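*** Residues and shapes ***
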Amino acid sequence: MVSGLAASIRSCLESTTFDLAGHDTTSIQSIAHDAFSTPFPPLEQMIRITFVVGAGKLSRQKYDAKAMQVLTSALRELDYVEDRGAGCSFDSAGCFKTQHDTGKNLFTVVVFPKVSGAGGDANKASGDAANGEEDSLLPTNSPGYKIAVCSMSTFQTLLSSQCPTYAQKRKCIECIEGLIELLQSIEDKLMGGHPLDSAEQSLYDEVGELKEKLAHTQKEAAKHVDEGLLTVQEKEMLVEMNQKRLSKLMKEKNSAAVADKLKKALARKEYLQSLTDEKLSSSSTYPPALRHEAKITSLRKKLLPLQVLEGKAKGGFLTIAETKALAEKEEIESEIEQLEEASYGWFEEEDAFEARLQKSREKFNAKFGKNNGGGNASAKKTSAAGKTGRGGKNVNNWVLPGQKQKGSSAWGTSAGTKSSTKGKGGSVFSAMMMDESSSDED
């Protein structure tokens, strides 16, 4: 019988935060298993269960150093999927994400539980196998699936809105290359005289125009380079690619073709050197604004008088009208956080999104914060990207094209994103090594 903290978690009917200070790794594993091994009872709406697993320097000793690692590992063992874009909807049932509350300097793990009954349909991707239903080859809510089956015109729109930066377009190229490899594997199976299962057949029938989508993405990525629409980190990535290409060409046998490629590579090197860090950092148009920037700005404006009112409340009494108005503050902050999370690109790295988010907040505060006496109008809510606490670069655990995952019925021969898929099996594609002979360098 579930008892203690796990029982409290399972009895939640609304979003709740639990502090894991003082709990060791054994206790955390037990809590995760008891609380999430079976779906929650039916809920009218999705809830988020937030676990505080670490803190800044002053409170760090209260938490086990491996609290985040142990909790996320336990959730993965229970077939929960890490999805940095997950939000409070039944589409995110069975997902979790790590965050860093920069305002309070707390590290958290946010869990969106699997829900039975009314929310059961939303758990299909993570629970179909358990229900005896057939898994799809690609989760239908994943970027890979959407890229594979959408029309060319729809893809062009999605690329612009979901992959607005150079780095994201590079990841999209890798994803499409993974899809092409996946499709080729299916065709090889057919050519070998082996029948396709229903999941393979369904994808084979739906997929289309992959080569055209790849060419379009390569063209759009090249525009970033030609127009200097890059971050300092993206330029460094291109410099590294260029250096590798030059080294490779220098080792090749002399020929007219090699000489021409070497000339282009040297010209690219000179061009990249002309893009100084100062020039790139001072751009007012790049990296691009958040997808929901306009609505976020409108909500931040609404927060300004409420922040002033909150300061007034600390020093005296409020009228009934003021108290009622102040009660809306948390709701507005929550909506801002959700819109920030929804602005995450498909293949965006945490650090890159954090930079865009910080730029958005600084831009707003410079224009509205001081003039209205509201201080930091971003309210310093939990960052939509956050920090994983794992150290070093945050790299998604991608799944190679065609790789069979735990609990999956998909064929198992041997690409991804922010979007760990909201279905069982996690992300779709491998973040493959950058091809130093890519179109960006040709």
